[in-house]
Design brief:
There is one protein chain. The chain is of the alpha/beta class. 30% of the residues lie in helices and 26% in strands.
Length: 250
């Protein structure tokens, strides 16, 4: 049975919309103000976008997982002329979003209906991106390949010399997700720099919530400063040698 896809009006604003899949919130978007990022983890990725280059400078961005294309709209609004590619496996979702919440006409966004794992390998081999965003969730579950070192190596391989990878992680209290993601990235490339941004309790493994893993050849200090200083609060940024702590069993 195909998933139930719904778009609901935002009760907090006149122009916002929430995307739900089988009753679980997946995205929030405000077409009238694409710079309004409602969810905390999306705002953190927005901070990465803001700090990676001079204000307004175009960026090449690959989004693996589209949802309502919140971040693609944000990049198009804050960095006009940015060539972007959005990959989403759900053709029905892509069609609904295009029909109900179309992108601005001047957005340089290419939408590809494909499996993210396949698409990373099948895109033109010469294409490199300043930012690759991985946000692949159906409900609260990400596909297993998100923690596959081969997939993450392919994502890292799509980065330009100063490029960054940003991965949304839904982390359960005491669970393995952040640690598994960090370990997989280290196996994908032992030299990769890694940072974690999120609420302190989530990074400590004592609370459930979203965190963002940022990785690249190097992570500019201005990106880390932006993540620390711009919230949403509370926020903690770690650049650990090891994976985030897991809560002991029992």
């Amino acid at each position: 049975m195909p998933p139930r896809i719904e778009l609901e009006r935002d009760v907090l604003s006149a122009s916002g919309w929430t995307l739900l899949v089988d009753g679980t919130v997946q995205s929030h978007v405000d077409p009238a103000d694409p710079t309004r990022l409602f969810f905390e983890y999306v705002r953190r990725i927005g901070h990465v976008v803001d700090a990676m280059a001079d204000p307004g400078a175009p960026m090449r961005v690959l989004h693996l997982g589209g949802g309502a294309m919140t971040l693609a709209r944000y990049v198009a609004a804050t960095r006009p002329g940015s060539p972007q590619t959005v990959v989403d496996a759900d053709a029905r979702l892509v069609e609904l979003v295009a029909e109900r919440l179309p992108l601005a006409g001047d957005s340089e966004v290419e939408v590809v209906v494909a499996d993210a794992r396949d698409a990373v390998g099948e895109l033109d081999g010469s294409r490199r991106f300043d930012l690759v965003v991985v946000d692949l969730y159906a409900g609260l579950e990400a596909p297993p390949f998100v923690d596959d070192p081969a997939f993450l190596a392919a994502c890292l391989g799509r980065l330009g010399p100063e490029g960054l990878l940003a991965v949304n992680v839904v982390h359960a209290a005491g669970g393995p997700r952040l640690g598994a993601g960090a370990a997989a990235l280290s196996r994908a490339d032992a030299s990769v720099a890694i940072a974690f941004a999120g609420p302190p309790g989530v990074l400590a493994g004592t609370e459930e919530g979203n965190a963002v893993i940022v990785a690249g050849r190097r992570i500019p200090e201005r990106v880390l400063e932006r993540l620390r200083g711009s919230g949403p609060f509370p926020v903690e940024v770690r650049t650990p040698a090891a994976a985030p702590a897991r809560r002991p069993a029992g």
